[in-house]
TrEMBL record:
Descriptive protein name: tRNA uridine(34) hydroxylase
CDD domains: RHOD_YceA (cd01518)
Catalytic activity reported: uridine(34) in tRNA + AH2 + O2 = 5-hydroxyuridine(34) in tRNA + A + H2O
Taxonomic source organism: Flavobacterium psychrophilum (strain ATCC 49511 / DSM 21280 / CIP 103535 / JIP02/86)
GO biological process: tRNA modification
The enzyme's E.C. designation: 1.14.-.-
Family named by the database record: Belongs to the TrhO family.
Gene Ontology MF: a single term: oxidoreductase activity, acting on paired donors, with incorporation or reduction of molecular oxygen
Length: 452
């Protein structure tokens, strides 16, 4: 009985590519009393693993919170695994606006104390006494009411790239930080104002609305299904979007576009940009916004210091990451004195630029590169990558792109190559080619030749 992953993310990505089937990214949650979370977790893992479902799920005695990637052909079967439980009958599945077959590459189902880290003692208030759910049209209408205060209950790095016009956007890194801040900020408006709240998929507002009603707020409302469901409804009903920009998501995509408005800046040069990335230095991994030009110039790093580190040998990089102090610096969420154009807290509703149609971008990319082969191995100590040539040929001086879900897009020029174990100047179909690569290569990575 398999209750845990047996494949790496890279191996899973390779299988997804080989299958060539569309996958749907979705999320859902449900508050319910679960007597045996561990057994519930194991049952779901077994059922979902059979359906090739991937994603991140948290289970607690208070309910379930999940973000998933499911083969489109298995969507209804996946729904049936949920509706087998009474508390998930007719559950709303928030299907993403934009899809990526690699949004999740592992099936992770964890038992936790809470499905959202809110820092609240649920025994001190009625968690079922929640705010009024509003559909997209109702939400738009209440935003027009001058008696309304709208609050974004997401984190600063989420709201920076997109938010509802006029919303209060707390400068916080966690949901639990925002609750006392908003309670203090709005303490004088408990009786006469509409407290309207939203988050990504609705789960944070379920708990927040009950908390604020307990704190004495009389008119509490929440966006049903969060931004994800709002985007779906405004499209189906042809409504005006009061949300501007991108909706940050917690998977490989890091965001899905709701409108073409770009409301944030590249943290390094200040150009209009709303593309999040993680610093290439694995000892930093800072989440920040970076434009394409800075990505090339800085090699996907947040600072010149990190740029120097990624050119060290992998062995030396690992040494730098050792120790609790250094380890605590990893996975920081978008704040650093190196980021000159980082904004949080009070955000502007001004559109800095308009995004280009992503379909056009994909078409342009296709004309600039051609698939040559796939990765077979990476030798860490010597920093040598091995590839099988499956199409066309490569020669000294060619500019290549190595691309993968974890590696990202990395370009380099071939200065020296070995073909079938011997130094040569050209490789053809069927050849095995090795060359120096200063970054880790995964089995799911593809090798492209840049042709323009």
């Amino acid at each position: 009985m398999q209750l845990y992953n047996t494949l790496s993310a890279e191996e899973r990505a390779e299988l997804i590519d080989q299958a060539g089937k569309q996958r749907l990214t979705l999320s859902f949650y449900a508050y319910a009393k679960i007597e045996n979370p561990q057994q519930f977790r194991d049952d779901l893992f077994l059922a979902w693993n059979k359906l090739d479902a991937l994603g991140r799920t948290y289970i607690a005695k208070e309910g379930i919170n999940a973000q998933m990637s499911v083969p489109a052909e298995n969507f209804e079967a996946f729904r049936e695994t949920l509706e087998a439980y009474d508390f998930m009958k007719n559950i709303r599945l928030n299907v993403a606006v934009e899809h990526d077959d690699h949004s999740f590459l592992k099936l992770t189902v964890k038992v936790r104390n809470k499905i959202v880290a809110d820092g609240l003692n649920d025994e001190t208030f009625d968690v079922t006494n929640i705010g009024v759910h509003l559909k997209a049209n109702e939400f738009n209408q209440i935003l027009e009411d001058p008696n309304t205060i709208v609050v974004d209950f997401r984190n600063h790095y989420e709201s920076e790239i997109g938010h509802f016009k006029g919303a209060i956007t707390p400068d916080v890194e966690t949901f639990r930080e925002s609750l006392p801040i908003i309670n203090e900020q709005l303490k004088d408006f408990k009786e006469d104002k509409n407290l309207v709240m939203y988050c990504t998929g609705g789960i944070r507002c379920e708990k927040a609305s009950a908390y604020f009603k307990h704190q004495g707020f009389k008119n509490v409302f929440q966006l049903e299904g969060g931004i994800i469901n709002y985007a779906k409804q405004i499209k189906e009903e042809n409504l005006e979007s009061k949300f501007i920009g991108k909706n940050f998501v917690f998977d490989h995509r890091l965001g899905e576009r709701i409108t073409n408005d770009i409301v944030s800046q590249c943290h390094q040069c200040g150009k209009p940009c709303d593309n999040h990335t993680n610093c290439e230095n694995e000892g930093c991994h800072l989440l920040f916004i970076q434009c394409d030009q800075c990505k090339l110039a800085m090699e996907n790093c947040c600072s010149s210091e990190c740029q120097e580190i990624i050119h060290l040998s992998l062995v030396d990089q690992v040494k730098l990451r050792r120790g609790i102090k250094n380890g605590n610096m990893i996975f920081r969420k978008g704040k650093s004195d190196k980021l000159l154009f980082k904004h949080s807290g009070e955000l502007s509703d001004v559109t800095l630029a308009k995004a280009i149609d992503t379909k056009d971008i994909r078409q342009k990319i296709k004309t600039k590169k051609v698939l040559i082969g796939k990765a077979e191995h990476y030798y860490v100590k010597s920093e040598i990558g091995s590839f099988l040539i499956e199409n066309k040929e490569l020669k000294i001086g060619d500019k290549v792109l190595i691309s993968g879900p974890t590696t990202g897009d990395q370009q380099l020029v071939l200065e020296k190559i070995f073909v079938n174990g011997k130094e040569d100047s050209e490789a053809k179909i069927g050849d095995k080619i090795t060359f120096h690569i200063p970054f880790r290569v995964r089995l799911s990575d593809k090798l492209y030749k840049i042709i323009a």
